[in-house]
Design brief:
This protein has 714 residues and is of the alpha/beta class. The protein is built from 28 helices and 27 strands. The structure holds ligand C2E and magnesium ion (MG) (2 copies).
């Protein structure tokens, strides 16, 4: 690039002044050459020139300038100079260093007129190589920066200290949704205005921005909500230059999608995907909240555990798809029958929980009733209609638990009690029951040990013919003296054994012992039928009939000398299965009786259908005889019914003559009770029944045993 310059004022370049100029030139930083305008040969060079080009003065002086320059521009310039053109030139060009590498230089050539009219050129060289290199480095750095800025997912805005936008990337424009014309206008002053108009709370936005700009040396971080619903995280850092904050760099990150995803994850982790109800985790949080509320406002609340009865059967018979539909329907019904404020959650497979706010015993019971009622409606899917019942356990805060886990556990325990006592109902948690539970566990353990250590005994109570007063049978009753507890009543340990299932082992032991005793008596010549109590669980064992047959066989006892006392619940449980089993037992030839008759729900229909031979009137009806008219009425009715059905009738718990007389008058066949004898050990029984013979165990008499009872043939 040529630069027109004024010719330098005339000076006289004579040898004496050349020396002066030489020392002047040597004082300059730039490389300087004097070129004879006529010959275009180098007249003088300074020391800086030697350093710049690596050529000594001797090598340069006298050289023609055209032999020294390298660029076409220089060649043309000196050609023009040779032709008499004295225009100056100032531009960047290339020169070769003595070692061969190219130097980027700024070169200025000015014509100086001498006093004699001739002239010479003053050529100055400034090495620009380093400058050029750093310019290039800066340029590529800038390009890199720009690419980096554009490739980031964040919107970047650079402002000066007054907050005016100096630059930004495309992402920034996209996040804020600047209109195209605003961007094209290149009037960055409009951007802040657009931004403040597009946030939800522009007042707060202005206040925050003011605070950020008011502290130019501090970083900042906050979150903005835009009018279009997007949520941005705004981070800013001061921009420093020479130790001074000169502006600020803002980065804007769009958090909307992340927040939505986070929210969804949060929702899912608190939700049951099948029913859409809160899950156990969410419920615990709500209970915690209810607890805090209850503390502040001193209001109680209740937690109900609602478990679908026999849900496995629904799944097994109708399939899992129907099972899922039932769960959804139950969820919907629970939601519908409760208040808005109350919460329903699904805590596991077929188990739901209901949190009833501000509920005392009455409120909790009302909620439980509403649930029972809602579940009472038939479930109809497609063409299928069926009934679903639920068992509900109720826990009250704070009585049944001071925190969520304790309350959940109490409600669940109460629910299990409902299940145990027949399902389809509700029940409050009773703290006392927990203590019972522990002592029951201990009792169960002690029983198991007692059986191993042979601590159980079998005693017998005579059964007496009301007319002949002869002993016609014996009821075998278990006795247990525990080393710690002393004598434990069957009414205390039998229910525990029934609950734990240990009754099956006890029952087997009793059966064997009773058969062994009857068989022993028989060997001594005493035909004494022995009645054994059979628990429902024992009766339901798959091999129960076999075990009876086995016991008879191993004791070589005629089956008619064994009687099984069954409870009414056995007949109710699974009537068809019970009938099959009873028939099998009857086929064996054993006698079957119903114990504690009148306390259960036996219907006439059952009694007719089942091969029962004997009814045992429960002691509770005998106690009031003969004065209590309702007891008298019941006992009379049972006797009449038994007679009509051709069943033997025996009354239990006869303690007085008056009771016995009433029974005899009413047509009862037999009785047992303290009036005749208490429950006796085998030896005492023998003594009581067979007198001295029993004691001596000699010359056995023919038994006074039951032979042909009312034609039933036990
Ligand atoms: P249960 O089968 O009804 O037995 C009759 C109960 O009445 C016996 O109580 C007997 O001692 C009692 N008893 C008999 N006569 C009188 C009387 O005149 N007055 C009073 N107050 N009570 C009388 P125990 O032995 O305490 O047995 C209670 C229950 O325990 C039995 O009622 C029976 O259900 C069950 N049980 C006893 N032994 C066994 C057993 O070996 N197996 C099974 N599964 N249950 C048994
Ligand atoms: Mg009995
Ligand atoms: Mg009884």
């Amino acid at each position: 690039m040529s630069l027109a310059a004024q010719p330098v004022a005339a000076i006289d370049l004579v040898p004496s002044s050349l020396e002066f100029f030489q020392s002047l030139m040597n004082g300059l930083q730039e490389a300087v050459w004097f070129i004879d305008a006529r010959t275009l040969r180098v007249l003088a060079v300074n020391e800086a020139s030697e350093a710049m080009f690596g050529l000594t003065r001797q090598k340069l002086i006298g050289k023609h300038i055209e032999s020294l320059v390298n660029s076409p521009e220089d060649a043309m310039f000196w050609a023009a100079a040779a032709a008499g053109c004295h225009d100056a030139i100032f531009s960047d060009t290339w020169m070769r260093h003595a070692d061969g590498h190219m130097l980027c230089v700024s070169r200025r050539a000015s014509y100086v007129t001498q006093a004699d009219g001739d002239g010479f050129w003053v050529l100055t060289w400034l090495d620009q190589t380093q400058q050029r290199q750093s310019d290039e480095a800066r340029e590529s750095l800038l390009a890199e920066l720009r690419t980096t800025l554009e490739s980031t997912a964040d919107g970047i805005l650079v402002t000066d200290l007054a907050g005016c936008a100096r630059s930004f990337n495309r992402r920034f424009a996209a996040i804020w949704g600047f209109p195209e014309d605003l961007l094209l206008e290149k009037n960055h002053g409009l951007l802040p205005d657009w931004m403040s108009r597009n946030v939800v709370d522009s007042k707060l936005y202005a206040a925050r921005l003011g605070a950020i700009e008011g502290a130019p040396q501090l970083p900042s971080q906050d979150v903005l909500t835009l009018s279009n619903g997007r949520v941005l995280e705004r981070i800013s850092l001061p921009q420093w230059s020479r130790g001074q904050a000169v502006g600020r760099v803002y980065s804007f990150r769009d958090l909307s999608e992340k927040l939505a995803a986070d929210q969804r994850i949060e929702e899912l982790s608190h939700m049951d995907s099948l029913t859409g109800l809160p899950n156990r985790r969410a419920l615990i949080e709500r209970i915690d909240y209810a607890q805090a509320l209850a503390k502040r406002e001193s209001t109680p609340f209740a937690l109900l555990n609602v478990d679908i009865d026999r849900f496995k059967q629904i799944n097994d018979t109708l399939g899992h798809a129907y099972g899922d539909r039932v769960l959804k329907e139950v969820a919907a019904r629970l939601r519908d029958c409760l208040r808005e404020v109350d919460a329903v959650a699904r805590v596991s497979g077929d188990e739901f929980c209901v949190l009833v706010h501000q509920a005392d015993v009455r409120g909790a019971e009302l909620a439980a009733c509403r649930i029972q009622e809602a579940m009472g409606q038939p479930f109809t899917f497609d063409t299928l209609s069926f009934t679903v019942t639920c068992s509900t356990g109720i826990a009250l805060h704070p009585r049944d638990g001071g925190n969520a886990e304790a309350l959940l556990a109490s409600a669940e325990r109460a629910m299990h009690w409902v299940k145990e006592s027949g399902r389809g109902s509700y029940r409050f948690h009773l703290p006392r029951k927990d203590v019972d539970l522990l002592s029951r566990m201990r009792l169960d353990h002690a029983m198991r040990q007692a059986l191993q250590l042979n601590q159980f005994r079998l005693h017998f109570q005579p059964q007496v013919d009301l007319h002949s007063n002869a002993v016609i049978g014996a009821e075998a009753l278990i006795r247990w003296t525990d080393p710690l507890r002393g004598e434990v009543a069957p009414s205390d340990f039998i229910p525990v054994a029934e609950e734990s299932g240990f009754i099956v082992s006890i029952g087997e032991w009793v059966l064997k012992q009773a058969v062994a005793q009857a068989s022993l008596w028989l060997k001594r010549g005493w035909r004494m039928p022995v009645a054994v109590n059979v628990s429902a669980l024992q009766f339901q064992q798959v091999h129960f009939v076999e075990s009876v047959a086995q016991a008879l066989q191993s004791g070589a006892l005629p089956p008619e000398l064994l009687e099984l006392e069954l409870t009414e619940s056995i007949l109710l449980h699974d009537a068809d299965d019970a009938l099959l089993r009873l028939r099998a037992l009857a086929d064996l030839g054993v006698c079957l009786s119903i114990d504690d008759f009148g306390t259960g729900f036996s219907s006439l229909g059952y009694l007719k259908r089942f091969p029962i031979q004997r009814l045992k009137i429960d002691r509770s009806f005998v106690t009031g005889l003969p004065a209590d008219s309702s007891d008298a009425g019941i006992v009379n009715a049972v006797i009449q019914m038994g007679r009509a059905l051709k069943l033997q009738v025996i009354a239990e718990g006869v303690e007085t003559e008056a009771q016995r007389d009433f029974l005899a008058r009413s047509g009862c066949h037999e009785y047992q009770g303290y009036l005749f004898a208490k429950v006796l050990d085998a030896a005492s029984f023998e003594h009581r029944v067979w007198g001295a013979q029993g004691l001596n165990q000699r010359s056995p008499q023919l038994p006074m045993a039951r032979l042909g009872r009312g034609g039933v043939g036990c």
